[in-house]
Amino acid sequence: MAERPTRVGVVGADPSGRGFGPRAHIPGILSAPDLELFAVSTAHAETAAAAAERWGASRWYEGFEGLCADPDVDLVTVSVRVRLHRPVVEAALASGKAVYCEWPLGLDPAEAGSMAKAAAERRVPNGVGTQGRFSPAVRLVRELLDRGDIGRPLTFAVTQQLSRFAVDEDRAWLARAEEASGALYVAAGHVTDTIRYLLGDVITVTGLAMTAAPDGTYVDTGVHFTWTAHDVVAYVCRLASGVAGVAHITNLANPSAGFRLRIFGEEGTLTIAAPGYISFARARIWHDRPDGERRDLSIPNAYRDGVELPDEHPGLNVALALRALTRAARSGERFRPDFSDGVALHRVIESIERSSTEGGWQRVAE
Question: Suppose 9 and one of 39, 139, 302, 347 were both cysteines; which one would form an S-S bond, judging by CB atoms 3.0 to 4.6 Å apart?
Answer without folding.
Answer: 39
